[in-house]
Amino acid sequence: MTRLPDWRPRLVSFVAEAARRPFAWGQHDCGLFVGGAVEAMTGEDPAAGWRGRYTSFERGLLLVRREGFEDHVGWYAARFPEIPPLMAQVGDIAVVEGDGGRPALGIVQGEGIYVLQPGGLAVLPLTLARRAFRV
């Protein structure tokens, strides 16, 4: 996937809109947040086929496992090249520890990572990234 010439303002607009939406499994969760961000930057939504197909973490996990992946992180890892987390740049995908120790996905924004949590959008330091993928 190639980033569009105007990817930066498109990403800013997407994140601003995402911050106003409530968290909902299968509609607006970390994996779909990242898919929407990638779509904003490239015009292609890698997560389009997952939207509306599950209503809990467990159900979403079952679906990605049926596709042959351990979890949502593995699904993204199969589509984007992995890079050292501290080499991640604006718009890249980061993996952090989420609720209950489960991995969560976010979008790098400078020295921070936008992450979608049940309470809304948060920013975590890039130093908390366990893995990262280039978009």
Helix-strand layout with pairing:
Elements: H1 7-19, H2 30-42, H3 57-66, H4 72-77, E1 82-83, E2 93-97, E3 103-109, E4 112-117, E5 120-125, E6 131-133
Antiparallel strand pairs: 1-6, 2-3, 2-6, 3-4, 4-5
Helix pairs in contact: 1-2
Domain DUF6950: 2-135
Protein name: DUF6950 domain-containing protein
Organism: Cereibacter azotoformans
Describe what you observe in this structure.
This protein has a single domain, classed as endopeptidase domain like (from Nostoc punctiforme) (endopeptidase fold (from Nostoc punctiforme), Alpha-Beta Complex). It is globular. α1 runs antiparallel to α2. The N and C termini lie close together (7 Å). It has helices at 7-19, 30-42, 57-66, 72-77, and strands at residues 82-83, 93-97, 103-109, 112-117, 120-125, 131-133. The protein has a 6-stranded antiparallel sheet with strand order 1-6-2-3-4-5. The model has no long low-confidence stretch (mean pLDDT 95). A hairpin with a 5-residue loop joins β2 and β3 (103-109). The chain has 135 residues and is α+β, with helices and mostly antiparallel strands.
